[in-house]
Amino acid sequence: MSKKILRVDMSKLKAKFEDFPEEYATMGGRALTSTIVSNEVPPTCHPLGPNNKVVFAPGIVTGATAPTSGRMSVGGKSPLTGGIKEANAGTNFAQKMGRMRIAAIIVEGKYEGNDYFLLKITNDGTEFINATKWSGKGLYQTYKKLFQEFGSQVGICGVGIAAELLGAASGICFNDPEGLPSRYAGRGGLGAVMASKGLKFIVVDETGASGVEIVNKDLFNQGSNKLRSALLTHDLTKPQGSLNTYGTNVLLNVINEAGALPHRNFATGQDDRAANISGEEKAEQIKKRGGVRPHFCSPGCIIQCSEIWTKPGGKDPVGVLEYESVWALGANCGIYNLDDVGELNRACNNLGLDTIEAGDTIAVAMEGGLLSFGDGKGALKLMKEVHKKTPTGRIIANGTAFTGQAYGVTRIPVVKGQGLPAYDPRPIKGIGVTYATTPMGADHTAGYAIAPEILGVGGTLDPRDPKKAEVSRNLQIATAFIDSTGYCLFIAFACLDIPEGLEGVVESVNGVLGTKLTVDDIATIGRQIIDTELAFNKAAGFSAADDRLPEFFEEEKLPPHDVVFGVSNEELDNVF
Amino acid sequence: MSKKILRVDMSKLKAKFEDFPEEYATMGGRALTSTIVSNEVPPTCHPLGPNNKVVFAPGIVTGATAPTSGRMSVGGKSPLTGGIKEANAGTNFAQKMGRMRIAAIIVEGKYEGNDYFLLKITNDGTEFINATKWSGKGLYQTYKKLFQEFGSQVGICGVGIAAELLGAASGICFNDPEGLPSRYAGRGGLGAVMASKGLKFIVVDETGASGVEIVNKDLFNQGSNKLRSALLTHDLTKPQGSLNTYGTNVLLNVINEAGALPHRNFATGQDDRAANISGEEKAEQIKKRGGVRPHFCSPGCIIQCSEIWTKPGGKDPVGVLEYESVWALGANCGIYNLDDVGELNRACNNLGLDTIEAGDTIAVAMEGGLLSFGDGKGALKLMKEVHKKTPTGRIIANGTAFTGQAYGVTRIPVVKGQGLPAYDPRPIKGIGVTYATTPMGADHTAGYAIAPEILGVGGTLDPRDPKKAEVSRNLQIATAFIDSTGYCLFIAFACLDIPEGLEGVVESVNGVLGTKLTVDDIATIGRQIIDTELAFNKAAGFSAADDRLPEFFEEEKLPPHDVVFGVSNEELDNVF
Lengths: 576, 576
Fold this sequence. Notes:
The structure is a homodimer.
Chain A: E1 4-9, E2 14-19, H1 29-40, E3 54-58, E4 71-77, E5 84-90, H2 92-99, E6 102-108, E7 117-122, E8 125-130, H3 139-150, E9 155-158, H4 161-164, E10 172-174, E11 183-185, H5 190-196, E12 199-205, H6 217-233, H7 242-246, H8 251-257, H9 279-289, E13 292-295, E14 306-311, E15 315-319, H10 323-329, H11 338-351, H12 355-367, H13 376-387, H14 391-397, H15 400-406, E16 414-415, E17 418-419, H16 429-437, H17 450-455, H18 469-485, H19 491-497, H20 499-513, H21 521-540, H22 552-555, H23 569-573
Parallel strand pairs in A: 1-6, 7-12
Antiparallel strand pairs in A: 1-2, 3-4, 3-6, 4-5, 7-8, 9-10, 9-12, 10-11, 13-14, 14-15, 16-17
Helix pairs in contact in A: 1-18, 1-21, 6-19, 6-20, 10-12, 11-13, 12-15, 13-14, 16-18, 18-21, 19-20
């Protein structure tokens, strides 16, 4: 049995397996979701109408024994940006799909009534189960009960209350290894797209699955081993390396030190209180509290940057507190208390909200006078408004730009409608070029210029040099390729510095597909993916004016370095 | 003394008169506002930030004795569409400005504190007066007191509570002859732009003004007389003609009969109950109640399509109930009760809300389940939410698209973010071409194809013929010219059918300016204005995909004619 596509028509509550088309044969992950969306979704359709689709695709090697490769891509037209979106998460849900040889799930149409459904996928077929009873309920409780009902061996994907509100800040939630609803394809509001169709959960049970089909096992193993060695060697990715020891939040002190950690809605780039919510402090607290660190988001990961954050005494496990989330819900809101940040992260996971968008949103609400900067308890109350589906909750669930408009705020940190991540683009210009030009809207993962600009990985670049079109372009292209393989983007740290690592990636992909790609092909493949995405966005109405940062990044100097962004429009337009 | 520009810097609370630049010498009204906005406002600026401006300009002949010419243009970057905006109103405020020889008021910068100001302009100079005490108050009460304070001879322009909320549905309000706050440059959220700067009112006192400078009085009088004759002759514009007798709302029965009156958020084009809110019924009621009809919006109007609607017994005068308002707040919300419509119109005027946008917004809120279609009292409660500045009020004050997103509605009747007016584009395709392609966002006044398609004015066209690029283009171009002269657009009815009328327009303009324009120059001048606006929009990020109607106009057939829009993208792109 070779790979299949599962097409789910929510208007008829029917799901059917289709042959995996030849034209998609070498695609996985982002390449597949973006190509299917581009082929099947009218670019000017309403993102929450029947003509949008949501596409799930594990990466090419996902589900096999390749290290750190449990990534799931989700694609569709974004209700947040109005353009194409790929959001991805690390979760065993992806690995199960890979082993079941389901290359993609395409969810289309729209259920006409008010009910929600759960789609159960097993090796024997599919089943729709009414899931309306879970409406209005938090995902922690819900996932716990769903695992009890369907068995601990399943993978669960779902949407929460924010998506029921059709909020543009709602993500799609996947389980972590303990079954916590903490691994998110968070960005761009794809949760609302899924909910708009009447689909609340997908449960995959891989019992009896054939496993990933691997055309050349020796080559696959050779490649996997090369990558494994690179990951085990590189300072950032090795056991007891910085990601393993402190998680992604190791960045908090680093970026604060660089004067580029946005505090209080991008008002300053540095604050002494940052240390209170740093990766170092968090690791210490996890030890004290009886949480788990390090921890993997999906089996087979070498880096293991994840963790289980809990309340004191190991209670109420949240899952991981990523750097982005700690920044967004912490420093960006002037909240320098890990307990508050942890509870806010739990609230986001529980509601199905993207943590980055939620943090930007709360900070903008603070600037708009709805609550004060630093008011962690007030921020939690805002989350309760979402839970209760009040008008305020509806505003918050629609994200940063929407909340900014509701409260008359003009300093709104978004590109293409999507909230900026945890690096101020003024002192670190390459990441700003990526924010401005990626088809995804402000997204650090789309072309992580922080690597050469701050971490000294993949070379060393002056963060203040405004000539960053080339590095952003190259990183965006390489990222589009990696996002398609199923490997976690963090393998790039090792691959940028250790050539054998990248060779290993390509060899393992060749092993699975039976292709003869070389490292040199990465640029062509990655560029093709991005060109597909750019064409969709152009047809949806985007133009060069959308590839810009908000004007306040040119008008307000960011302390302590007192710089504006200052990258020319020509440089931005030179990226693609 | 020749014409001046008054430049108002709200960041310093300073206003200074500047010479009227030579390059603007032949411009007035929309030509002037659009050119100044294009020259001075960065297209990608935040519409509510310090870099946007709001520009007021009376037309070329406004303030002189030319008939039906009391129009005021207001321009800026629209917070509703994100593009350039010109909205205009008929009001003696414009005539006073004309006679004071103030060609334009340019309001720029932003007051840094929380106070609001009133700018008083007299022949002797300008004065800023703290107006914070009027914040949160309805405009009926406020205008009454302002006229008491400043004298009945002044003209007042102001913004209401919706603008204080920086709502994108807020208009700029001008007084009618009785001092009622009922003449609006309503569309596109320019009220919020004015409020964002800290400017709440402008009061003009023309005492001692020199009057409009007229280079060739004989020619001016000759032209005015020609136009006057045409207006007095044409069936639509003459005394006891249809506009004079029933007001603009004479259209309600006509358009309902044509199956193109949108009912209940554009769900059907015809409903028997339309007669309850028709112009005929309204005229009857005004007579019974002791209101006023006919009535002029500004002195010197021959058509006199305006009126004063009141509660029974002549109480609580509202001002005019235009066709657009009666449709938006009535039929489009399933409300077929003139008392409810009148109170809703009063609420909009009182809050400073655009009635068209408000009606579209309420209908979308109804579709989103916030209240039921037909619930007039519920709609009035929504208006109270705006008054009380609640979260729901903030949603409503931001208009149709915003409210649709907040409540998860996918049938959102907007183009470029602006709510559609009172003609369904499916059975009357030319007006739909105008909605789609005008730089203003959905706007019937931008190129009123209803004239030839339904009224048989300026020729007769089949409303169902999808080939409407040419007629829409020609009407849009002619309109841009008329909007610059200061003449009311309604003179076009007479001018389209009576060539001497149009000659009179051109001669009167030549009389004022000393120019030698011919009727043939209208196309060049009008096109230049539109090209200026299109260039601004392009730089602001608009592309062909923005020149489209929402997808539901292609997917849902409108009863009773059961047609979709069906104008090709090529036809739309052929307009400009």
